[in-house]
């Protein structure tokens, strides 16, 4: 679907003439350079737009000037002066030249990147362990969930003086307490949130409780502890008589606590206000995303807006992430907008890590649950940018972060070389009249990654697609996002070839045994420079049953990174 955000307020320098689209700007570093002197501009798609013009201004040069025209909703501004703020506005145009809308103003400052960062590699199976936020009297706490064949066994408390390295094992809550109300006396806990209440100084646990057989109880479980002491189990129940499964805790800026929990057979998300000690539900102010079957809720408050990120209910497989925003928790909330990309970069919307004032989506890649499985589950760190109710996150090869000082720097392996460049293919779809236009080869390199209907569709499988970079380039990375049909998710067997003259090709990637669904990212290192990048797709396989699913074929985006 094509979405555009009609934002409730507009504070740009230039007043929007039709409506304002959301836009954000994100500073980033190019691999091997010493400054975050590049800015990525992202904005909401506009229905009917065929091109977008980007206008840039800086402190040094007053006034906006046209800097680029692009087919999609992303633009990289490279090689900027360091230590300067840049401002951007975007205008959307129909193919007949009619202006369709103008963005809010987005800005970002470039900066020198110091050496004191840890680094997170998004191309391997990494897991991010944050510093514990359960601190009391200089001691940090964590609680390990232990289970056996009959489900939940106990929570074991460990302590730390630095928030990272934990030791000591003390059982602080056990099965006979937590599962007492469940017939048979066995239960499981999921979505466990343990938080410190600023008023009482106590730790409060909220979790989703089920018996150890099925998901029919749909209850919350709540417990409270004086830090360092065993938990007192308070009870399990359905809040306001509503089913409650996947849940998250949210602390508002004024210290109020909320639970956000899936209800109504996982179709709705209910928002519950907690008492000031956070142990009791006192009201039910809103139903969010009614009937939309979203899960994995994660809420943050940034500037004057609340943002709620959610995942599709798509089992363990990657799915399009979405978010809603509002200036008041009780609403009105925006429509649910797509974010990231159609495959959420090979993961599902998850929890949000905070680094000072900056945040990253820690998207869950449940690879160990896939068929065939990956070695382990992992997470992708996707830096989030926010602006006036609009949000975006992107995929970078590496993220630099500092848990102490709070910084975060996205590092891109190279410049994006593929967007808007000439393409060719082995034959376009003739499934339906108009397919050759609707699913043209150029849909795979227009930079549009959040529109599930915007993809290149070949006439058959196997097929090939090629982009002409129009110049020789050193290639650092090639990412491919493929069409996902919920319930029939697919993986692609493919190879990537490259050529400097269009006749002699060298193989850069052998993806013939790939089984990753929806999104693949390939690091490239070759001593040669190339002008043509050709992707050959040999098979499209339904991961749910292992059968061919050529009917689901489609390439949302192929992104080629490198230096010219
Ligand atoms: C130009 O295209 C837009 C969007 O498709 C349409 O609404 C408008 O009527 C067109 N204007 C003219 C003059 O054709
Ligand atoms: C993070 O920032 C702090 C304070 O500026 C600094 O001392 C530290 O070396 C940095 N690096 C890491 C990895 O924490
Ligand atoms: C504490 O428990 C963990 C598993 O939860 C175990 O690996 C570790 O050996 C235990 N440590 C001690 C000191 O018992
Ligand atoms: C569980 O905890 C309760 C309360 O602390 C205690 O009385 C009971 O002995 C514990 N049960 C087990 C099996 O440890
Ligand atoms: C927490 O607050 C609720 C509602 O005000 C109250 O009923 C409950 O007794 C409090 N719990 C504790 C342990 O003070
Ligand atoms: C492109 O690179 C290839 C391989 O390095 C080289 O042979 C060729 O001459 C280059 N072409 C141009 C136009 O620079």
From TrEMBL:
One of its GO terms (molecular function) is hydrolase activity, hydrolyzing O-glycosyl compounds. PROSITE patterns: FN3. The keyword Electron transport does not apply. Pfam families: F5_F8_type_C_2, Glyco_hydro_43. This is Fibronectin type-III domain-containing protein. Keywords: Glycosidase, Hydrolase. CDD domains: GH43_CtGH43-like. Belongs to the glycosyl hydrolase 43 family. The keyword Hydrolase applies. InterPro entries: FN3_dom (IPR003961), FN3_sf (IPR036116), Galactose-bd-like_sf (IPR008979), Glyco_hydro_43 (IPR006710), Glyco_hydro_beta-prop_sf (IPR023296), Ig-like_fold (IPR013783). GO terms for biological process: carbohydrate metabolic process.
């Amino acid at each position: 679907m094509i979405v555009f955000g009609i934002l409730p307020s507009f504070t740009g320098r230039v007043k929007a003439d039709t409506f304002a689209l959301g836009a954000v700007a994100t500073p980033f570093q190019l691999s091997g350079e010493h400054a975050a002197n590049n800015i990525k501009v992202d904005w909401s798609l506009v229905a009917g737009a065929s091109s977008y013009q980007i206008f840039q201004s800086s402190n040094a040069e007053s006034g906006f000037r046209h800097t680029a025209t692009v087919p999609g909703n992303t633009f990289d501004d490279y090689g900027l002066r360091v230590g300067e703020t840049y401002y951007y506005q975007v205008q959307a145009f129909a193919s007949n030249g009619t202006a369709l809308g103008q963005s809010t103003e987005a800005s970002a400052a470039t900066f020198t990147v110091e050496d004191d960062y840890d680094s997170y590699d998004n191309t391997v199976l990494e897991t991010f362990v944050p510093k514990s936020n359960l601190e009391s009297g200089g001691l940090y706490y964590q609680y390990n969930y232990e289970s056996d064949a009959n489900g939940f066994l106990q929570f074991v408390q460990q302590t730390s003086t630095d928030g990272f390295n934990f030791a000591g094992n003390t059982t602080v809550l056990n099965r006979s307490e937590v599962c007492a109300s469940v017939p048979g006396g066995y239960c499981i806990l999921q979505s466990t949130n343990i938080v410190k209440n600023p008023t009482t100084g106590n730790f409060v646990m909220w979790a989703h409780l089920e018996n150890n057989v099925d998901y029919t109880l749909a209850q919350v479980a709540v417990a409270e502890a004086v830090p360092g002491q065993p938990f007192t189990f308070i009870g399990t129940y359905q809040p306001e008589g509503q089913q409650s499964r996947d849940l998250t805790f949210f602390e508002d800026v004024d210290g109020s606590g909320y639970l956000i929990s899936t209800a109504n057979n996982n179709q709705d998300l209910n928002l519950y206000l907690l008492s000031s000690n956070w142990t009791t539900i006192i009201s039910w102010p809103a139903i969010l995303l009614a009937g939309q079957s979203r899960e994995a809720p994660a809420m943050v408050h940034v500037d004057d807006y609340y943002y709620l990120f959610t995942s599709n209910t798509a089992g363990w497989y990657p799915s399009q992430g979405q978010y809603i925003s509002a200036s008041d928790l009780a609403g009105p909330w925006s429509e649910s907008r797509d974010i990231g990309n159609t495959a959420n970069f090979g993961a599902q919307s998850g929890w949000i890590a905070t680094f000072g004032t900056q945040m990253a989506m820690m998207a869950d890649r449940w690879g160990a649950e896939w068929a065939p499985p990956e070695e382990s589950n992992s997470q992708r760190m996707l830096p989030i940018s926010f602006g006036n109710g609009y949000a975006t996150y992107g995929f970078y090869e590496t993220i630099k972060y500092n848990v102490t000082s709070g910084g975060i720097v996205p590092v891109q392996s190279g410049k994006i070389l593929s967007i808007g460049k000439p393409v060719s293919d082995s034959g376009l779809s003739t499934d339906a009249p108009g397919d050759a236009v609707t699913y043209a080869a150029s849909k795979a390199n227009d930079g549009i990654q959040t529109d599930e209907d915007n993809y290149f569709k070949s006439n058959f499988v196997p097929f090939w697609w090629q982009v002409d970079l129009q110049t020789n380039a050193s290639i650092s990375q090639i990412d491919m996002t493929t069409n996902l049909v919920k319930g029939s998710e697919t993986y692609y067997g493919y190879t990537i070839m490259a050529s400097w003259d269009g006749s002699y090709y060298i193989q850069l990637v052998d993806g013939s045994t790939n089984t990753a669904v929806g999104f693949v990212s390939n690091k490239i290192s070759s001593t040669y420079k190339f002008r043509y990048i050709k992707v050959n797709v040999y098979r499209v396989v339904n991961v749910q049953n292992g059968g061919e699913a050529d009917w689901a074929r489609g390439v949302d985006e192929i992104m080629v990174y490198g230096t010219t």
